[in-house]
């Protein structure tokens, strides 16, 4: 059984919990508090030198970090992971977009504004910069979704899960989605998928262990 | 035949040129100058709303952006693209790491310090921040390579190509690699691969068109 090291309020961790729930994969959940330094202990760094969650133990002693890589691993062989060459490339396209254009802006704004509420990072990076670049990313997503139901392969895939995590909670950090009707319709389509769990809900199939 | 929209001095574009050269795939190369705004024209934005290079025309009128997604597309079915489930996930792990921990620091430092030499971005982001986070990323790579020849699957893959692009030219933007012997040995191993081309060299198989 997989063990997932995860922080409940992290969007990157939510991606993995959402995919596990959608696929009905039993797993053991270990809550890790980033804000208490629990990813910087020698024990955690021995499992993941990057000191980040999510982290999936795929086999005893073998650990896979990086939310989007974990998505591909657990979804392998299911409809969530498109294997056609161009479909796969386009799903990856949006997942790399998510990691460099969406998450660093929406995710950073959420983390520093709603969770840490201050600190050094807020001095180094202007909030206006996150907002401007975050809205640019949302604009590109809106344009793509105006003509499509999902991001790639014409169906719900790991790309949708990756992009959903920080987009659905964007209003929490001050991003207004009023001007993005296609994104709002897509958020509703994702939330209507079988096995969907909310970010703050417990995965239906997680074991207590 | 593929058409690659690329800027010679861009590390992200170099990844794609390197993979095409290694695989001996003929292609048409269109040089695009980011600094002259050539990715912000209506014509270019119609091909890629993100306004970025590299961009690969995979079929007439069908465009694939995102360097690391392009790598998976062109390498599909070759040894460069590991298809085993855990090997693929670990290659992806390092490619997502590259896009959020390496490229935003080494790539940004290179772009703003050696190419633009100033501007708004240098006010918003402290150079010390790029250096600190860039060295952290290099430290994680060094630790991984201390026990391995390549990043995943025990061989040269798209993950190595992705990480090589900005690492091999890190000294240009002030990153010293003296303290990273495993990285330096890996850089030499990558440069020794068949079909390797330097960043400033012309791809051996590109057509003049």
Major sheet of chain A? 5 strands, mixed
Using only C-alpha atoms, the radius of gyration of chain A works out to: 17 Å
- Which range best describes the helical content of chain A: under 10%, 10-25%, 25-40%, 40-55%, 55-70% or over 70%? 40-55%
Read across the widest sheet of chain A, the strand sequence of neighbours is: 4-3-1-2-5
- By oligomeric state, this entry counts as homodimer
Most extensive chain-chain interface: A-B, 37 and 37 residues
Low-pLDDT segments of chain A: 203-209
- The count of strands of chain A amounts to 5
Mass-distribution shape of chain A: globular
Quickly count the domains of chain A: 2
The CATH class name of the largest domain in chain A reads Mainly Alpha
Give the ordered list of helices and strands of chain A: EHEHEEHHHHHHE
Strand content of chain A: 5-15%
Arithmetic mean pLDDT of chain A:
92
Structural class of chain A: alpha/beta
Second rung of CATH, namely the architecture of the largest domain in chain A: Up-down Bundle
Distance from N terminus to C terminus of chain A (CA atoms, Å) equals 11 Å
- CATH-assigned fold name of the largest domain in chain A: Glutathione S-transferase Yfyf (Class Pi), Chain A, domain 2
- Number of H/I helices of chain A: 8
Please render the helix and strand layout as text.
Two copies of one chain form a homodimer.
Chain A: E1 2-6, H1 11-23, E2 27-31, H2 42-47, E3 55-59, E4 62-65, H3 67-75, H4 85-116, H5 120-124, H6 127-145, H7 158-167, H8 181-191, E5 206-207
Parallel strand pairs in A: 1-2, 2-5
Antiparallel strand pairs in A: 1-3, 3-4
């Amino acid at each position: 059984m997989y063990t997932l090291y995860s922080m409940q309020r992290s969007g990157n961790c939510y991606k993995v919990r959402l995919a596990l729930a959608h696929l009905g994969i039993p797993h053991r959940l270990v809550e890790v508090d980033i804000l208490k330094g629990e990813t910087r202990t020698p024990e955690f760094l021995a499992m993941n030198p990057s000191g980040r969650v999510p982290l999936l133990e795929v086999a005893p002693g073998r650990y896979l970090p990086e939310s989007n890589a974990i998505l591909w691993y657990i979804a392998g062989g299911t409809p969530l992971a498109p294997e056609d060459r161009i479909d796969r490339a386009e799903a990856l396209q949006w997942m790399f977009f998510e990691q460099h254009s969406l998450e660093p802006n929406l995710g950073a704004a959420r983390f520093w504004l709603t969770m840490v509420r201050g600190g050094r990072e807020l001095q180094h990076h202007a909030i206006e910069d996150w907002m401007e670049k975050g809205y640019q990313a949302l604009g590109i997503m809106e344009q793509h979704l105006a003509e499509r139901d999902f991001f790639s392969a014409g169906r719900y895939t790991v790309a949708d899960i990756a992009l959903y995590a920080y987009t659905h909670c964007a209003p929490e950090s001050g991003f207004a989605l009023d001007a993005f009707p296609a994104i709002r319709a897509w958020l509703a389509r994702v939330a209507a998928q079988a096995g969907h769990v909310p970010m703050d809900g417990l995965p239906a199939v997680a074991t207590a262990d």
